[in-house]
Amino acid sequence: MTRALDGIRVIDLTVWFQGPVAAQYLADFGADVIKVERPQGGDQARGVRSIKSLEIGDWNQYFLVINRNKKSMALDLKTEGGREIMYRLVAESDVFLSNLAPAMLDAWGLSYDKLKEIKPDIIYATNTGYGRLGGVTKPSFDMTVQALTGIMARLGEPGEPPIYLGMGSGDAYGGIMSALGIALALYQRKRTGRGQCLDASLYGAQLFLAAPFLQSYLAGDSSAALQQSRKQVDNPLWNLYPTTGKWVYLCEPNEDARWAALCRAFGDTQLAADARFADAAGRRQHNEALIEVIEAHCLRHDHTGLMAAFEREGLVASPVNNLADVIRDEQAWRNNYFMKTFCEEVQREVEVRGLPISLSKTPGEIRSLGPQLGQDTELVMMELLGYEWDEIEALKAKGAIP
Amino acid sequence: MSRPLDDVVVIDLTRLFCASLGATFLADFGARVLRLEPLPLAPREGGGEGVWNHDADLIHRNKESIALDVQSEQGRALLHALVAKADVVLTDWTAPELEALGIDYPAASVLRPDIVFGRLSGFGPLGPDSELPPIDELAAARTGMMPILPQPGQPPVYTGAGAMHSSVMLAFGVVTALLHRAVSGEGQAVDVSLFGANMYGAALDLQAFLAIGKGDRLLNPISRLDVSNPMSGALYPSADGRWVTLTMPDTDRWWPMFSAAVGIAEDDPRFDTHDKRTETHRLELIHALEAAFVTQPGKHWRQVFSEKGMSADIIERFDYPASDPQALINRYIVELEHPSFGAVKSLGFPIFMSEGTARLDALAPCSGQHTSQIMRDLLGYSEDDIHACRSAGVVA
């Protein structure tokens, strides 16, 4: 099968989530991604089970899914020998990607200036925490960065604690942003023959996670920064409502015809005649009262009954599903948003997040889940980098590779 | 200065904020993005007399505008001529709409065989719900995360982040397809949906449930006083009500400095191993931290975290990034001189590129601002032809 990124080699010197997921997008579309890890323990995400921050099943779904389709080399970059192997790898690669601290990369002789000497058209991509300028170097994990963007503080009912968008939510966003930057640089290089350095920071990306609201705030709408109650939304027809089962998200514009349809769905002719709600302005003005009325009606049904009534009237709505629903959702499977693949760790087929971006002629694919630490070190050294076996033995003896 | 997409012409047929923003990312990095505004013009959302249309100046910056009556025969011929000249179509219009206009992917690829056709849908191109409208709230409701984001007993939470994922996925998919085209000469269809994008926004919890297949803690909200690791993913109120958040999952590494900062003895026998902190005495530690953080204001904690280089911070509102020098110097937020509204701030550019710096050449165009220019330069119309189209109401 033809792959969009055939022939592109990527050095993936990343840990945890944002960097690995950026490289995953490239690997899914056929890039030859070589993950370079420290020999002792490798990427910290291999040890995620012990940190107890996330439920892990009998296979490490955290690490294995975002590192799928990759090779792994174990190199000790603190040794001269490890660096020499890395330099030879750089000479054979198109992209160098890292989310390690820039100071650490400099200390290991892996700055852009250095790598550019070895491979002038290298694309050198970083994921800093807070941007390459400005000197902020504090630790950057998804939630601590999300905390600074203002996105958490505006979610939830007023007075409730701020809301985190979900494990890895901001990292995943930083990852696709980084993949976009790399694809742009590859495209530019095809035309100009020139490489470059680029950065997609976690903070910079996450500021776009709430783009419509932050942009409103910047334009002077200070309420965009604050928690808004669902009991006070301007348009009661576009709102969340409880039923005796699941909540339902009703998504209708504040228009007379849609209001009439909603009254029909509730079978409430009196409500349709209520002068307060007769036009859009009235429904906006009496929004709190209207929300209470709609809520009372919704609570007379479970979500199945309510959805059936809504569907009869052509009202746009969805039950608010949980994760047990989505993993059975036919729509997700039909579009390859979920896929099955073999897992070496447990020797069986497992279910994984699939391909959210489909390219009709060069679709992505899952060839393998994440590699074992260092499984390709020797093979890559011999086949790609031209090392002889005795040189490899010597580098082992010096501790450059395990 | 050269930019990555200098040689790329994009036809922008979008209505949604997120799809328009996807096209903006291409425009920022050099693509010539022609935004088609169908006649008769719909009233513009946002803005209004004397109010800055801040959305348009973000999601349509660096674009050109052509206003066209696509329902007329001549208008449709113009649309087809545009597609024939384009490298990329980027759209969130429905499949039936595109088909009726003769510019769905099969038809567009007859007009322009190597076209890259990027489309955002609600729920993906296949399956029983492929025709549902592209509304992010519907997609988020289907994705399964909304019930578990808030504290127990609270309503589900809609974040809007899924739509923002879709913007970047669309841009990435299109550029990846352009890379393939540059090698093979072959165009293709690129599909992204709000549903798929929401699922990737929910990356880890969703994948965890997929792998485990059960788990109350993935189906029901977890109280902040019951988090599985008291030092990671936790929220604690400080003395002035500002919230503290910690991400120090590897508690062994952080405990010596962290315990000192919060006034717990490092060798406190209740908490002196990772297992005790995250298993046997987990709830006790959460309560001890709750009691510790509330003794000092947020400012104090930020200073402590900063001095010790700890992975922890205070939860901020939008005023923080709006005045953060770090956001300005990296151009994540930019100050610009608006011709009507003077100095304003806008979201800027999330990606830095040394050889292809993102541009801000123009704010959002007026509807039809570039109609004549596009017809002349790109389609080779004479002034008389353009005038005739205008008089006939085909373009504006």
From TrEMBL, chain B:
Q: Name one Pfam family in it.
A: CoA_transf_3
Q: Which domain of life is it from?
A: Bacteria
Q: Which Gene3D superfamilies match?
A: Crotonobetainyl-coa:carnitine coa-transferase, domain 1, formyl-coa transferase, domain 3
To which species is this protein native? Answer: Thauera terpenica 58Eu
Tell me a Gene Ontology molecular-function term this record carries: catalytic activity
Q: Which InterPro entries match?
A: CoA-transferase_III (IPR050509), CoA-Trfase_fam_III (IPR003673), CoA-Trfase_III_dom3_sf (IPR044855), CoA-Trfase_III_dom_1_sf (IPR023606)
SUPFAM superfamilies per record: CoA-transferase family III (CaiB/BaiF)
Q: What is the designated name of this protein?
A: Uncharacterized protein
